[in-house]
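Per-record layout

source: Xenotaenia resolanae
name: Interferon-induced very large GTPase 1
length: 303
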Amino acid sequence: FSTRMSFQYSILEDLVSKSDFKSFQSYICSYEAYVKRWIYNRIMERFSSESTVCEFEERHLQSCINHINDAIRKVKEESTDSVRTFVENICKELGDKLVISQDALDAFMVLNNADQEQFPYWLNVCVMEMTEDLRKKFKNIRFETKLTHLRVKPQNELFTRVIGCGKQCPFCKIACDAGGRGHSKHFASLHRPEGLGQFRWEDSKKLTTDICSSLVSSNMHFKCSATKNEWHPYKTYKDIFPDWDIRPDVSLEASDYWKYVMAMYNKEFAEAYNAEPADIPDSWKKITLEQAKKSLKESFSIK
């Protein structure tokens, strides 16, 4: 998660190492859902050790307890006319760090005649007992349960930071490379065969091996639901997808990584997309797993 590039590389390297078609299909067709689930699984692995979770919980719990004890100590040094005032002053000291309901505060009305010297002592004792009770409670709750109850979901936060907007190329379904959500145009530096994005030839129904970057400078046409199934020139794709900027490059080919993936799972993709298998070039079929991984490293400048 250190950089967006290293994160993307890690996902793709993991995918090709799994040798599982369903994972590739999910990644391509349900990109955001797959990546968030992938992040969630990494979080579960990272914090599977009880000691790691306990360290964070202990740090957070101790911080809260320190705030309470500091508030008690500070108010104790001041002069108060009743236990209720004493407790109200503690609440003011804690501010938004610890919110105490009015109902709980009203319960102290019955203690107005209590010994004001003894009350702070027993309050400190109660805080210590509460701390131990919470430690035991935390230990008995599974980490997965704790994760579901968090107000801020870490997998969503990490997704936003390292993935960006999550939008996919309308043709090959590659993810937008622009970080964050503050950009007007979506773009991807490395497109892949359009067949992976479910595009096929009209007559033969075979998945296409062409790449978007070459097609947008060609005389070819496309049609999809966005064009109401009417043919439209690739050269003027921005009429249909104005938010995307696909850099034209007639010499550009798909990386060996995606050639390997399409050659390896040609029949599976065709079946999943209700299409005919693509005509895979012989050179694609000769690409090995090691070459695919090497190509991936080169694409992401990983040494």
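summary: The mean pLDDT is 87. Residues 67 and 96 are 11 Å apart (CA to CA).
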